[in-house]
Design brief:
alpha+beta, 4 helices
Length: 116
């Protein structure tokens, strides 16, 4: 018969490669805004890596295509990080800030984005 754990593992690996059907984001919907921080500008100058706040449902492939289309550059790598919202108090009520997603996009050595 075989190991049932191996079969389940392969199924989960294959499922992660399937794109989300019906959700098509335009480039301006994927890239919400650039993150201009001291660390971000340092990475842009030294490593040619730019940081953006992106849509929570955007995949790395969506981010790669959006940056290429908006600025006409070649993307070498995309890394993403999810940030959970922090609890905040307003007078007597508790709330929290929203969750957000950050993308670090590394470009090819010849390419640059001029607004940084």
């Amino acid at each position: 018969m075989g190991c049932r754990h191996g079969r389940n593992r392969m199924t989960s690996l294959n499922m992660s490669k399937i794109a989300k059907p019906g959700i098509v984001l335009e480039p301006h919907q994927v890239i919400l805004r650039p993150l201009v921080t001291e660390k971000g500008t340092h990475h842009a100058e030294r490593y040619n890596a730019y940081q953006f706040e992106v849509a929570m449902i955007a995949t790395k492939d969506d981010i790669r295509k959006a940056v290429s289309e908006l600025w006409g550059v070649r993307v070498a790598a995309v890394r993403t990080q999810l940030y959970k919202g922090k609890p905040r108090r307003f007078k007597t009520k508790m709330g929290h800030t929203r969750d957000w997603k950050k993308a670090i996009v590394k470009l090819h050595d010849e390419d640059r984005i001029s607004f940084f």
